[in-house]
Amino acid sequence: MSANDSPSGQRTQPPAQTYDSPFLKACRREPVPHTPVWFMRQAGRSLPEYLKVREGIPMLESCMRPELVTEITLQPVRRHKVDAAIFFSDIVVPLKAIGIDLDIKPGVGPVVAEPIRTRADLDRLRDLTPDDVSYVTEAIGMLTGELGSTPLIGFAGAPFTLASYLVEGGPSRNHEHTKALMYGDPQLWADLLDRLAEITSAFLKVQIEAGVSAVQLFDSWVGALAPADYRRSVMPASTKVFDAVASSGVPRIHFGVGTGELLGLMGEAGADVVGVDWRVPLDEAARRVGPGKALQGNLDPAVLFSTREAVEARTDEVLAAAKGLDGHVFNLGHGVLPTTDPDALTRLVEYVHTRTAV
Description:
This protein has helices at about 20-25, 50-55, 60, 65-80, 95, 135-145, 160-170, 175-185, 185-210, 225-235, 235-245, 265-270, 280-290, 310-320, 340-355, and strands spanning about 85, 100-105, 110, 150-155, 215-220, 250-255, 275, 295, 330. The chain is an alpha/beta fold. A 7-stranded parallel β-sheet has the order 1-4-5-6-7-8-9. Strands 2-3 form a two-stranded antiparallel sheet. Helix 12 (about 265-270) links the parallel strand 6 (about 250-255) and strand 7 (about 275). Helix 4 (about 65-80) packs parallel to helix 6, helix 6 crosses helix 9 (about 185-210) and helix 14 (about 310-320) packs across helix 15 (about 340-355). It starts with about 20 loop residues before the first helix and ends with a helix. Residues about 1-10 have low confidence and may be disordered.
């Protein structure tokens, strides 16, 4: 058994070759040679090389081809010189892997053929095993060999966001079916989120054991909730996920959109790093989150469509707000928009590195 393994086989710290990377140092709130940068959705639609290799291949199928996943994940590292790679996948992959009839429709998003809204429907959510996602293990093995000292971030969808897709049957503006279930049958809701927490935990463990250096839990839709509802009806499941991977020693990042009122609770749920969207300045976010957490963010993705001078000015504002933080990972306040100029991202990485170099 290697020094990085626990008796159960789960790694107890990140891979040695990435341990001293600026990204992981920032996550651990240690001094860094420069502020590390990566972007959500950096491996995706804004890159012409991505569009070329994905041509004619449906999204879910592309997530199940290890060679393709490896190539797409590496593309922004090569082009932008970011400080971390994010594993190319989708938050609904583990649901598809356990047999849920869903598809990702272009221009729409994940669509579930038969929404889950009754207790009998819970039986369709079986446990996830490593064999269900063997292509993930294979791709991560290929990637860690290629990336060397550059960390690879694994990820999963948080229980609330997965539940929202399952209950609504697809993306939703108001989450009316989701909230109706949460308010109207709190025990069924709790059981649903607990089941999803088990699936999510298993999915993250597969990625950790395969070699990722950090994990991010995406709660894309949780900003639709009031703090009291989050604490009562969502936080226990998110905490269960973070607790399940705590012994791995890899940093745990928690990100949601429109979560300014939830930042303290999201940190309390168990993350080491709290992602902040562009609506709250990082110094104010730090006050809301409290001590002991690094922050990630938070340039508005739309700024990248402006002039180079405007991008640099707004970047300076983000860096100034982050100046007093123990740990800061520079990112956008949400994902890279599809029509973003890739050169703007490359310049942004170089600018942050230069401005923050010690």
